[in-house]
Design brief:
- The complex is a heterodimer.
- Chain A is an all-alpha fold.
- Chain A has a domain of 210 residues.
- The longest helix of chain B has 32 residues.
- By secondary structure, chain B is mainly alpha-helical.
- Classes of the chains: A mainly alpha, B mainly alpha.
- At the A-B interface, α1, α2, α3, α4 and α5 of A face α1, α2 and α3 of B.
Chain lengths: 329, 118
């Protein structure tokens, strides 16, 4: 039954992807991309990847859609007719697809427990997590502790991308040198839409609460800093869509966002250095407490908090960078 | 059933190439970024599919349950971080597209090349 369901979902996602590429209306394409991400998230859930499904749903279906729409508002919605070298591209793409499909015949069948990829280090993580890290969610253990270096790198990539967007879009280029003053009266929000406003305002605190739950329960269930950061950012973006950007910036000013962005990355690094100062390797949390397993727990909670802060700060900063820019005529 | 066992990989191949087609053949820069997102999603699907074990469950240990089979946590960790990095890089791309629109007045590759040639 699950197999049939996942085959149905996968087919649906291929159809959606085809529709995305075919449509000339970019707004439609972006909306379909959101649906595509949601379909993919359900697929991930069926494939036992609860953490990944949560992330994909929050990031792919939520934040990515908003960012694309913000970019569309600054550019244009219609795609011009005309593709470059359509038949040549189709030929290349079709033959490459055939080659990949041909290669899959050598792959182990879906879910085969003897597949080489399932033999090596994966089972080791599952087996030794209770002994070394002592938290139930193996994904969080691998993310935060065993592969802590990797995650540190990812956090800095996110941080760098955020800085990049701020550099690209924060520089003011309007002719008068002055930003168009925005007041509550001129701001385009959805405040007049009574239904959206009531429902949205009701939802925001619950999304925030769920975000915090995901952040602090990440050791025991699906969740962690990446998901929580995205969820909390999504709550504030929803608030900005309903109440307008100015009020959101009043609730969570830019300097707080910058602080979150920098502070999260620094906190992660500081935990690593603390391990060094206490006489062990960089990012070894075992020495943070008298009991190695307790130390691991402290370390993971701290670095997950750092990850959540950076992700939330970067995503909101990116959103505000897009939203506060005036469209050129 | 034996061939159906490869269905996930075929979907991966098709999605990958749909995304790639949008990147190479479409001239609109935002459409290219959308294509890149589909391409990325296909790779995510490949990794997560490889970590799945039949009859397995999400790798979250439970007390008193000792006979559970857990799917491979490692691909999940890699993809989890890749999704967030993906959105950050997409945002960076969108930022560049917005700047291109402001400088060139168009987000179509052909227009931009024409302006550059002049």
């Amino acid at each position: 039954m699950t197999v049939l369901f996942s085959i149905f979902l996968l087919t649906l996602s291929v159809i959606t992807a085809l529709a995305i590429v075919r449509t000339r209306n970019l707004f439609v394409a972006v909306m379909l991309l959101g649906i595509f991400s949601l379909l993919l998230a359900i697929n991930f859930f069926l494939l036992d990847a609860a953490d990944v499904a949560l992330t994909e749903a929050a990031v792919g279906a939520g934040i990515s859609t908003v960012l694309f729409i913000a970019a569309l508002a600054l550019t244009s919605e219609k795609e011009r007719d005309g593709t470059s070298q359509r038949w040549l591209s189709l030929l290349v793409v079709a033959s490459a697809a055939l080659v990949i499909v041909y290669a899959t015949f050598d792959k182990p069948r879906f879910g085969d427990p003897n597949a080489p990829v399932l033999q090596h280090i994966g089972p080791w993580y599952v087996q030794h997590t209770p002994e070394y890290v002592g938290i139930p969610n193996v994904v969080t253990a691998v993310l935060g502790s065993f592969r802590g270096y990797d995650t540190l790198g990812e956090v800095f990539v996110v941080f760098t991308a955020g800085i990049g967007v701020l550099f690209l879009l924060s520089a003011r280029r309007s002719r008068s040198g002055q930003r168009r003053p925005r007041s509550d009266a001129t701001e385009i929000g959805l405040r007049d839409e009574i239904l959206l406003r009531v429902v949205g305002r009701l939802l925001v605190p619950f999304i925030l609460l769920f975000g915090l739950y995901v952040q602090f329960h990440g050791e025991y269930g699906p969740g962690g800093g990446f998901q929580a950061g995205a969820l909390i950012a999504a709550a504030f973006i929803l608030y900005a869509l309903i109440e307008g950007e100015e009020r959101t910036l009043h609730a969570l000013p830019r300097r707080v966002l910058n602080g979150l962005m920098v502070g999260g990355a620094l906190l992660y690094g500081a935990v690593g250095v603390a391990g060094m100062l206490m006489g062990s390797n960089f990012l070894d949390y075992s020495v943070l407490a008298a009991d190695p397993v307790a130390g691991q727990k402290i370390g993971i909670i701290l670095i997950e908090a750092g990850v959540g802060m950076t992700v939330c700060g970067v995503l909101l900063n990116i959103f505000h960078a897009f939203a506060s820019r005036d469209r050129v005529q | 059933m034996n061939l159906l066992g490869l269905y996930h990989y075929w979907v991966f191949a098709v999605l990958l190439m749909i995304g790639f087609y949008a990147v190479v053949a479409k001239t609109n820069l935002i459409k290219k970024l959308i294509g890149l997102s589909i391409f990325q999603a296909a790779v995510f699907l490949l990794y997560i599919t490889m970590g799945k074990i039949s009859g397995g469950t999400a790798p979250i240990l439970q007390k008193d349950v000792t006979d559970a089979i857990f799917s491979n946590p490692l691909p999940q960790v890699l993809i989890l971080t890749a999704i967030v990095v993906g959105i950050s890089t997409t945002a960076l791309g969108l930022g560049i597209v917005v700047r291109i629109k402001e400088e060139y007045g168009s987000i179509d590759e052909q227009d931009i090349q024409e302006i550059d040639r002049q």
